[in-house]
């Protein structure tokens, strides 16, 4: 049976007088890879941050993993939601293994379990344990640091992973490699739900089982990449898709 892992019911979000999200409703099933696409300021990051309680809605209801966020302990909630952002935020004075182990340590895991987990996670994200575990973040490339960010977000085996434009600062080739790996990772980690915000249309169409296209805080279309690319629901989506066709033609 499919289980809903995220549900927005008539969510509204204002920052002061600025109404960023008008009336947003959608649901996401466990195990889906959702990509969120839209122009700058369309409310993608705000939507993502409302899922892990970094922003609270002005009105409406959000349910994550069967829990209404109004009643949730947000610190506890965030421990079960992986979060990967562009700026990564690795601690510079900690080694790579210490960075990955931050939350397991907070949760009081014993060192042996932590060491095994770190080794396992480095392998999952394609970094050699012997070579990288003892290094410091500045001794890694941007792409390698992003891999560590993904490993760290996976450290507590969360059912839900949020990605906010994680690869936008990387060069095109590194970015493409990481896209392939994130897709493979999602296929390997059964039942994990990925919610991935991006500006990049090709990235959104390649990665998503479904693509949510947002504009001015509203959903223009939420459908498979094939439907979005070949049957755009609105003029906005059509124009957006038109921009990749133009780029390919030039
Ligand atoms: N903490 C905040 N206080 C006030 N306004 C905010 C805050 N966070 C976001 N906004 C505003 O909300 C709107 C939506 O921002 P959001 O970051 O969600 O858009 P986005 O689609 O993720 O954009 P981008 O692709 O540029 O990251 C913007 O107009 C932004 O200025």
Automatic annotation (TrEMBL):
Record GO terms (molecular function): ATP binding
Pfam families noted in UniProt: ABC_tran
Keywords: ATP-binding, Nucleotide-binding, Transport
Annotated ABC transporter domain residues: 6-241
The name this protein goes by in its record: Osmoprotectant transport system ATP-binding protein
Source species: Lactobacillus colini
């Amino acid at each position: 049976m499919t289980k809903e892992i995220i549900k927005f019911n008539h969510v509204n979000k204002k920052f002061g007088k600025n109404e960023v999200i008008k009336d947003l409703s959608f649901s996401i099933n466990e195990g889906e890879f959702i990509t969120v696409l839209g122009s700058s300021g369309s409310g993608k990051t705000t939507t993502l941050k409302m899922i892990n309680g970094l922003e609270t809605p002005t009105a409406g209801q959000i349910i994550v993993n069967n829990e209404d966020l109004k009643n949730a302990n947000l610190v506890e909630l965030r421990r079960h939601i992986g979060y990967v952002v562009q700026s990564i935020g690795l601690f510079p004075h900690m080694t790579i293994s210490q960075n990955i182990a931050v939350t397991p340590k907070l949760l009081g895991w014993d060192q042996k379990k932590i060491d095994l987990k770190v080794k396992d996670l480095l392998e999952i994200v394609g970094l050699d344990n012997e070579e990288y575990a003892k290094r410091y973040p500045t001794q890694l490339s941007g792409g390698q640091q992003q891999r560590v960010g993904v490993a760290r977000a996976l450290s507590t085996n969360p059912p839900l992973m949020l990605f906010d434009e994680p690869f936008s600062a990387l060069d095109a080739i590194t970015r493409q490699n990481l896209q392939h790996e994130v897709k493979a990772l999602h296929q390997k980690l059964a039942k994990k739900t990925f919610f991935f915000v991006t500006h990049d249309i090709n990235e959104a169409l390649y990665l998503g089982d479904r693509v949510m296209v947002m504009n001015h805080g509203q959903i223009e279309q939420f459908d498979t990449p094939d439907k979005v690319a070949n049957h755009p629901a609105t003029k906005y989506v059509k124009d957006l898709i038109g921009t990749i066709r133009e780029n390919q033609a030039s």
